[in-house]
Amino acid sequence: MPLVTSTKMFKNAYDGHYAVGAFNVNNMEIVQGIVEAAKETKSPVILQVSAGARKYANASYLKKLVEAALIEAPDVEIVLHLDHGDSFELCKQVIDDGFTSVMIDGSHLPYEENIALTKKVVDYAHPKGVVVEAELGKLAGVEDAVKVAAKDATYTDPMEAVDFVNRTGVDSLAIAIGTSHGAYKFKGEPELDYERLKKITELLPDFPLVLHGASTVVKEFVDMCNKYGGDIPGAQGVPEDMLKEAAKYGVCKINIDTDLRLAMTGAIRQYMHEEPSGFDPRKYLGKGRTAIKEMVKHKIVDVLGSNDKL
Ligand code: G3H
Ligand code: 13P
Ligand code: ZN
């Protein structure tokens, strides 16, 4: 089937209290690993492309890889989404190029400017049948999120979220409740602000929320990286149970990139260590692809709950 938007996907997820995985793609093996996992588990999936991915792989190559996935997995519902779009021009470019979903990330801007930029993208996207995700609030770094005052300054304000959604007409909203990008999300005990999440859901019923920075930083792959020559000490992600809990309160899209990077790197490091005379890229990239596929299957079935939903 052709690419779809996330509208029906999110409605089903919202009503079914599960979430759809949004995975960052940067090369062929990553696309294949994710899509094979979605196919085997009968799960919808969001493939997302960042500005960095476009720079690395070239926008045309990525688009064609996703088109190949549609051919290889004709029964899987796939959304092609721009991750962290930073300008109207970039959003317009990918919409014109056939993406079915874009994120405009104006979270660093003053509130009114974030609204104006998001609305401009919505006004361009909607007539073309493309959906828009925006972000309100700042994702905390490890050093933030400790003090209540810091939370109020950076986390998403529930009343503002309502005003933002009403004034922009956006289709989904990324919120800040304690997650952050990368492999070092918490220093001590992991903590998410569920009260804030519940308040936002209460004020915005039936509206899909998005969690960025939602990798669990799978211990198996961190250990694998460290065992075979890596140096990634003290990495910590969002525990699986916390993500499952978030999916009960309107979080319909869970963004995962770091776990893909760790899985691929761990598997390749292990191969390089065990086969010092090996130099066939198909051998080590193949190991990376398999690790990604198994990890994504685990996420879909045991964390997101989006399996058997096609
Ligand atoms: O949220 C950001 C994603 O992990 C994408 O990272 O900009 O390095 O592609 P990137
Ligand atoms: P992680 O760094 O937790 O994988 O988050 C990825 C993300 O939010 C992409 O937009
Ligand atoms: Zn993100």
> Helical region count?
13
The radius of gyration is: 19 Å
Please tally the β strands and state the result.
8
Strand content: 5-15%
Count of structural domains: 1
Largest sheet: 8 strands, parallel, barrel
Task: Give the arrangement of secondary structure elements.
Elements: H1 7-16, E1 20-24, H2 28-41, E2 45-50, H3 51-57, H4 59-72, E3 78-85, H5 88-96, E4 101-104, H6 111-125, E5 131-136, H7 148-154, H8 158-168, E6 172-175, H9 194-203, E7 209-211, H10 219-227, H11 240-247, E8 251-256, H12 258-274, H13 281-304
Parallel strand pairs: 1-2, 1-8, 2-3, 3-4, 4-5, 5-6, 6-7, 7-8
Helix pairs in contact: 2-4, 2-13, 3-4, 5-6, 8-9, 10-12, 12-13
The structure holds glyceraldehyde-3-phosphate (G3H), 1,3-dihydroxyacetonephosphate and zinc ion.
Residues 84, 181, 212-213, 255 line the site of zinc ion.
Please summarize what this structure is.
The protein has 310 residues and is of the alpha/beta class. The protein has 13 helices and eight strands.
